[in-house]
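Intended use. Records such as the T-cell surface glycoprotein CD8 alpha chain entry shown here are meant for training and evaluating sequence-to-structure methods. They are not intended to support clinical decisions.
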Amino acid sequence: SSITHPRLGQQLELECLATKDDSGVFWVRLDKDGTLHFIVFISYLSRSTFEGNAKTSIRFEAKKDGKVYRLVVKSFTSQDEGNYFCLMNSNQMLYFSPGQPVFFPVTTTPAPTTSAATIQHGITEKDPCLKTPDPETSKEKELDFFCEIFIWVPLAGACLLLLIALVVTVALCQQTRRRRCRCKR
């Protein structure tokens, strides 16, 4: 939705338009520290699975209407701030939405004024550690994170498939071996 600066306690609704009907949608949130949080998976049959394999959540609602998958933050708090993404897995490809930044409005405070006495004595109070984060650097970190996901998720899936194939092969070989050993010598 168009709300990017919600108020405390306000309900927030985000939408994701899926291109395919045969797959569900994951909703995740990237917090200020760069940590990715799973929120919910909504299946194409409108079944929701929240964190911890729960069917409901006290903080979120999940809805599906046709090809539109909705995430509702019931009462927005500071722990809900971040960039929200919907993900869809289709034909073994993982698709990310561009992301929706949702943060409380930044409150600005006027710069402190110095008195004439302070100026006369040449005393100034500055914090040498205060720095504004470089937006380009934080963008690069986000891109690096998503590039890593594009590499690690398919790699983990391929490893899982190979492990399953190995287990099946060992099981079949054991059955074949037992059949050969039943013969009398």
